[in-house]
Design goal:
The protein is mostly helical and 121 residues long. The protein has one domain. The protein contains 3 helices and no strands. Helix 2 packs antiparallel against helix 3.
């Protein structure tokens, strides 16, 4: 009876342990202004901080996913594939956010360069 109970417990617990992947939470993309030309320098700085924080959080997220990817024997095939897919989609997401910030920055510089040149003449 004891062997049967131990065997049943092992059969019930092992699948649960195999499914217990680390709690990797994807960062939320920051909400950025749409028009950099109308931002103040402080507002542009806040946008830069949001993008930088998102980039850092994304690296932490990718590191968490890396624990699953680098140990395929510890996770189910579905968990491993999901982690790999999430990892591969994280970098383009960060690049997209930096691209949005670059456009804000370019618009800000263009608008303020015109303002500076106009006031100097």
């Amino acid at each position: 009876m004891l062997k049967w109970t131990v065997g049943l417990m092992a059969a019930l617990c092992l699948p649960v342990m195999a499914l217990a992947a680390p709690d990797c939470t994807a960062p939320v993309k920051p909400a950025l202004p749409q028009n950099g030309a109308i931002l103040s320098a402080d507002e542009l700085g806040v946008a830069a901080d949001k993008v930088s924080d998102y980039s850092k959080a994304s690296r932490v997220y990718q590191g968490c996913l890396d624990t699953v990817i680098s140990a395929p024997d510890k996770y189910s095939r579905d968990e491993w594939r999901a982690a790999l897919k999430a990892y591969n989609s994280a970098a383009p997401s960060v690049e997209d956010v930096w691209g949005l910030y670059q456009k804000l920055s370019d618009d800000w510089v263009a608008a303020h360069l015109v303002t500076t040149q106009t006031t100097e003449n």
